[in-house]
Design brief:
Strand order of the largest sheet: 3-2-1-4-5
Order of helices and strands: HHEEEHEHEHHHEEEEE
Number of strands: 10
Shape: elongated
Largest sheet: 5 strands, mixed
CATH class of the largest domain: Alpha Beta
CATH architecture of the largest domain: 2-Layer Sandwich
Radius of gyration: 28 Å
Helix content: 10-25%
Number of domains: 3
Length: 332
């Protein structure tokens, strides 16, 4: 019986040939490729190869087997021909209900679409999670641009960009003018200050105001987009825009919300008092709003709401009429 003294490192060195596998483009015979394109003209096939990518291979191996994970994760992501610009902003006041003090701004360069993601910290997991939410909610960009923060050069973020074939660019240190997201933040910051001042909302509502302002930004027609009749949402998605949820209620207005977990009849009221915080983009239907309850200061999402400012629709169980000092005149 023969024994071989072979270590795992020897096998690894042989398999990798002493270094990583690198594939280089090879000349393509477009006339041969006509059979895969239903014998279209060779000129069409040449242009197709020039303006498309060919990142996937088949078969993956000579041994055919069942796979539980996709071998090409980048193919499962919706792509957009745009650049994402990222920046982290900080607040000295924790946000209501969530306690978040950091917001990640992700704006697209061409369509000017803006998304806001609240975070507790600027760790690598929080930054990556915010970018992953943006990708799964909207689409994957062709490039990401950010400042020179070390978190964007970390293994977690760069590996995710490599898996999705997203290039990464960072601005020079102390050159904020190179990052367009800084310009977006200046505009949003000024708008949030005005929103809190005009509505009387407390500073803890800064994140909710920032989220609503970004939504309004995305659904407002920009004269510099297209022929001057399109909003960032229309340019980014290619769909029409409906602003009905934004013109029903305004920020920080008191509303009644229907609750469905009250089990004590009739001692418990089926409505609660809330303050309107914005439109729910990822919960419920199109006409669903984000609310903050008056009693618990928690965020809920509800579509069955109405204003408390209408005296004819007042809930007297929650808001009883205040007593007055009017004297009744009794005549005999």
């Amino acid at each position: 019986m023969c024994s071989y003294n072979i270590s795992a490192n020897d096998v690894k060195e042989v398999l990798l040939d002493g270094g990583p596998k690198i594939s280089t483009p090879k000349p393509i015979n477009h006339s041969v490729m006509r059979q895969f394109f239903c014998w279209l003209p060779e000129k069409h096939i040449l242009d197709t190869f020039k303006y498309t990518s060919q990142m996937m291979r088949a078969p993956l191996s000579t041994y055919l087997r069942k796979r539980h994970r996709t071998p090409h994760p980048a193919a499962n992501i919706i792509r957009c021909n745009d650049i994402d610009l990222m920046d982290s902003v900080f607040s000295d006041t924790p946000a209501v209900a969530t306690g978040e003090t950091v917001a990640q701004i992700i704006a697209t360069r061409q369509s000017k679409f803006v998304s806001i993601h609240g975070m507790k910290d600027v760790s690598k997991d929080d930054i990556l999670g915010a970018f992953q939410d943006c990708v799964r909610w909207r689409s994957a960009p062709k490039e990401v641009r950010s400042d020179d923060a070390a978190v964007y050069n970390g293994n977690c973020f760069t590996n995710y960009c490599c898996d999705l074939y997203i290039s990464l660019w960072q601005s020079e240190a102390y050159h904020q003018n190179q990052n367009y997201a800084e310009n977006v933040w200046e505009t949003l910051k000024r708008g949030v200050n005005c929103l809190l001042d005009f509505t009387g909302a407390p500073p803890t509502w800064w994140l909710l105001g920032l989220l609503l302002l970004a939504q309004v930004w995305n659904h407002t027609v920009d004269a510099k987009l297209g022929d001057g009749t399109r909003s960032p949402y229309m340019v980014a998605t290619g769909r029409g825009d409906d602003i009905s949820p934004y013109i029903c209620y305004s920020f920080y207005k008191p509303v009644y919300a229907r609750v469905f977990d009250n089990t004590f009849f009739p001692s418990e009221c089926k409505e609660i008092c809330c303050q309107l915080a914005g439109v729910s983009e990822h919960v419920g239907g199109q006409m669903t709003w984000t609310l903050v309850t008056d009693k618990t200061q928690k965020i809920i999402h509800c579509s069955s709401i109405r204003s408390t400012l209408d005296p004819n629709l007042r809930n007297l169980t929650l808001d009883p009429l205040k007593s007055t000092n009017v004297k009744m005149l009794v005549s005999f």
